[in-house]
């Protein structure tokens, strides 16, 4: 019988399928449903650095009267940090699978000390979703990267919790970047964050928001980089996120070298019971291929060996066009 047990960021999970951070993971009933349907772990909805900072400023009497300041203050009021800590504690009380807290941040700072409170509240690990859109043409790329290293080093000095960093693919040299994150104490990386993207309404001449849910074909970038990074650095633990909507997609990510696979959009669109279907598919696929454990096939098709490497590397259409009649 196929065993889906997986080790990830120092945790032992019953399945490599994790419920990714989103609105659903802020609701205890839904977390219970995720556990019942076989999720290996849950990543709670993120608390935002701005919330943490504002809470600190509230205590110190800062008075920013801008519209943005107002918005954030209202947001903080509705989502105090104590509520987040209560969510962690509640989740731990109600489910037995690992509970991963999540912080969404853009810079290093005093807010980092909040991670200690999450550790004390019983979080099993912490996922950091770091992203600051680089808009300053006078800033060198390395300055942006240094922000990540600085946050990680600061956090590592504060907590012993397993640390997962969720990143975007907008980096000049991902292999170097993630190798450095690992050297600074990160236990795993999540590839990749999916952003709130702008869209343009050509009739209203207005900027709006693109669909927030991913589509199955959105998994390509994650698949490529999971394969490359896992192949180059087998010690690196990768959680693959974006575009995983089926059991086939889970198997592909594991073959590429992911330790775990996160799902979010598909849970909104098809329901939380999808997790069970994904696990069932992986188990039956493993039986069909006589694999008894995830370790027997994880990374089997990662970047490495001449043939696989060439397929991961080919980024242009030269071959396609030369073969096409
Ligand atoms: C409604 C919604 C809310 C989300 N909230 C968060 C969040 O609070 N923190 C976070 O790191 N990612 C958040 N995400 C991103 C997801 O965790 C995930 O990275 C992204 O949706 C790609 O995975 P998917 O293709 O399985 O949806 C959210 C996504 C959606 C659709």
Polypeptide structure, described:
With 325 residues, the protein is an alpha/beta fold. It is 43% helix and 16% strand. The protein is built from 13 helices and 13 strands. It has an eight-stranded parallel β-barrel with strand order 3-4-6-7-8-9-12-13, surrounded by eight helices. It has a two-stranded antiparallel sheet with strand order 1-2. Strands 10-11 form a two-stranded antiparallel sheet. The protein is globular. The termini are far apart. The mean pLDDT is 90. The chain binds flavin mononucleotide. The site of flavin mononucleotide (FMN) has 22 residues, from strand 6.
TL;DR of this structure?
The chain has about 325 residues and is of the alpha/beta class. The chain has 13 helices and 13 strands. Bound molecules: flavin mononucleotide.
Task: For this entry, give a set of tags.
325 residues, single chain, eight-stranded parallel barrel, 43% helix, two-stranded antiparallel sheet, alpha/beta, 13 helices, binds flavin mononucleotide
């Amino acid at each position: 019988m196929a065993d889906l047990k997986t080790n990830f960021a120092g945790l032992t999970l019953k399945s490599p399928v994790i419920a990714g951070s989103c609105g659903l993971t802020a609701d205890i009933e839904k977390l219970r449903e995720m556990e019942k349907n076989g999720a290996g772990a849950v990543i709670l909805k993120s608390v935002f650095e701005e919330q943490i900072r504002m809470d600190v400023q509230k205590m110190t009497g800062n008075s920013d009267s801008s519209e943005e300041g107002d918005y954030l203050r209202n947001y903080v009021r509705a989502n105090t940090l104590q509520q987040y800590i209560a969510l962690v504690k509640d989740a731990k009380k109600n489910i037995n699978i690992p509970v991963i807290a999540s912080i969404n941040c853009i810079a290093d700072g005093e807010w980092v000390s909040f991670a200690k409170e999450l550790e004390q509240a019983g979080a099993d690990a912490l996922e950091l979703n770091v992203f600051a859109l680089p808009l300053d043409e006078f800033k060198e790329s390395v300055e942006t990267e240094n922000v990540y290293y600085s946050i990680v080093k600061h956090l590592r000095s504060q907590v012993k919790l397993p640390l997962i960093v969720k990143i975007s693919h907008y980096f000049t040299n991902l292999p170097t970047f993630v190798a450095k994150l690992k050297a600074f104490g990160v236990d795993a990386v999540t590839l990749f964050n999916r952003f709130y993207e702008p869209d343009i309404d050509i009739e209203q001449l207005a900027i709006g928001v693109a669909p927030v849910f991913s589509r199955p074909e959105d998994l390509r970038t994650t698949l490529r980089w999971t394969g490359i990074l896992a192949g180059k650095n087998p010690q690196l633990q990768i959680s693959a996120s974006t575009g995983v909507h089926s059991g086939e997609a889970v198997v592909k990510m594991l073959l590429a070298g992911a330790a775990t696979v996160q799902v979010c959009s598909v849970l909104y669109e098809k329901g939380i019971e999808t997790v069970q279907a994904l696990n069932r598919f992986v188990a039956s696929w493993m039986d069909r291929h006589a694999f008894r454990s995830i370790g027997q096939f994880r990374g089997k098709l990662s970047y490495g060996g001449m043939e696989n490497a060439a397929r991961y590397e080919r980024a242009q259409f030269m071959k396609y066009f030369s073969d096409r009649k």
